[in-house]
Amino acid sequence: MTVATPPWDPLILTVAPNGAYKPHGAHPKVPLTAEALAAVAHSGLTAGASMIHLHVRNPAGRHLLDAAAYRAATKAIRKAVGDDLVIQITSEAGKIYSPEEQMAVVREVRPEAVSVAIRELIPDSASELKAAPFFEWLHQERIMTQIILYSAEELVRYQDLRQRGVLPPARDFLLFVLGRYSTGQQSDPRDVLPFLDVLSSPTPWAVCAFGTKESACLTAAIALSGHARTGFENNLHLPDGRMAQDNAQLVGISAETATRLGRPLAGARQVRERFG
Q1: Contact in structure between 150 and 121 (CB atoms under 8 Å)
Q2: On the CB side of 169, how many CA atoms lie within 13 Å of its CA?
Q3: Which residue from 39, 193, 229, 235 could staple onto 214, CB 3.0 to 4.6 Å apart?
Q4: Are 80 and 266 in contact (CB under 8 A)?
Q5: Domains, the chain, ranges and CATH?
Q6: How far apart are CA 122 and CA 181, in angstroms?
Q7: Could you tell me which residues are beta bridge partners of residue 177?
Q8: What's phi and psi for 80, nearest 5 deg?
Q9: Closest among 111, 103, 33, 45 to 73, alpha carbons compared
Q10: Phi, psi of 244 (to 5 degrees)
Q11: Which H or E run contains 205?
């Protein structure tokens, strides 16, 4: 198990306000437009976030990978918060897009940060040859890349891909997904332990979690020197089961946890400096 110890690494707190699937009917504060995303960016920044995980939707509210939509949302967020948040777009397939389409939209947008899932872009050994140039491009363009991993087995595979040179020696940021995207999913803080058991190098990592134990899961990650992604993408509820008022309230809970532990919050400039 590779876990950093104090002095504390400043906490990178990411707000994930909508995801690919949450409808507006799930909560009136699920943002579906560029203007609504900008409002969440502002409130999330005030609550302690240094990064926003950005999904955009089509006019019907469905998941979308589209360069123009990403640019419009980015413009609106920059107008609201300037450079005080790192804007991370998603390449998530959402059961719609092929790996080629996912990589193409990232190349077109050329964002400052992106999240990518190994299981989507490199699902098997046959896909390694196509994916390798894309990951090398991310590295050369100095695009902050977060690698999404859904199990300890995927982490082992990621480390093998790095060792074999399929993935370049970039400053990756790992995201451990505790549980699965399934109806009624409830993550548990102990879900992070299998990842840490096989983490072979001090690569920075974060956690996202589902359900009313989200706060407990993120507390465990923060205490173990990990980082945290929180918001309506994965959870709508407070630790006591009540519906959260908005995304900023969930961000504030993790920021308060960090304060109680004596861990400082990272600002966007620190995140950019760390990941080049």
Answers
A1: no
A2: 2
A3: 235
A4: no
A5: 13-275 (3.20.20.70)
A6: 19
A7: 208
A8: -80, -35
A9: 33
A10: -70, 150
A11: strand 205-209
Q: What is the per-residue pLDDT for 185? A: 72
Q: Are 20 and 92 in contact (CB under 8 A)?
A: yes
What is the reported pLDDT for 7?
67
Specify the DSSP element, H or E, that contains 75.
helix 67-81
Q: How far does CA 71 lie from the centroid of its chain?
A: 19
Residue 230's SS3 state is strand
Contact partners, residue 150, CB within 8 Å, separation at least 6: 117, 119, 177, 180
SS3 for 171? coil
Determine the Cα–Cα distance for residues 255 and 38; give it in Å rounded to an integer.
20
60 with 68: CB under 8 angstroms?
no
Q: Judge if the upstream peptide bond of residue 169 is cis by omega within 30 degrees of 0.
A: no
Q: How far apart are CA 192 and CA 178, in angstroms?
A: 7
Furthest C-alpha separation in the chain:
47
pLDDT average per 10 residues of sequence, the chain (276 residues)? 64 97 93 98 98 97 97 98 98 96 98 97 96 97 97 97 95 91 74 95 94 94 97 95 97 97 97 93
Which residue do the tokens 């060792």 mark? Answer: 163
177 three-state secondary structure: strand
Q: Taking a C-beta distance cutoff of 8 angstroms, is the pair 53, 229 a contact?
A: yes
pLDDT of residue 67: 98
Q: Which two tokens stand for residue 153?
A: 């087995």
Residue 4 token pair:
């950093």
SS3 136: helix
